[in-house]
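INFO batch 0412 | record 1 of 1 | parsing
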Amino acid sequence: MHQLMQPAEWEALVAESAYMIGFGDPILGPSVMHCLAVGTPYLDPVYSSPRTVPSGMAFTSQHSFALSFGAPLVYPVRPPSPPPPASPLAADGFHPRTVLK
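INFO prediction complete | emitting tokens
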């Protein structure tokens, strides 16, 4: 994690990075353009269903247009699904309030 940077510092960081991972928001943020300009690979998160912006345009990933560049500059990635909710069962398989008779 980095603190707030001056534009030149940010551009240098992007240029020396092995890759950049998109977090899904903001849709069409400027970071992918920095990556494309200096040849840093960008991992573009793909949405589980299209997201629509106020103008009505639908996007299947954070930077749908960038996917047309393909490897080695842009790679689509599907973020993992969130884990299921924690089970109310204890480690031994019994609910903590189970009364045995």
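INFO post-check: The helical segments are 7-16, 31-38.
INFO record closed
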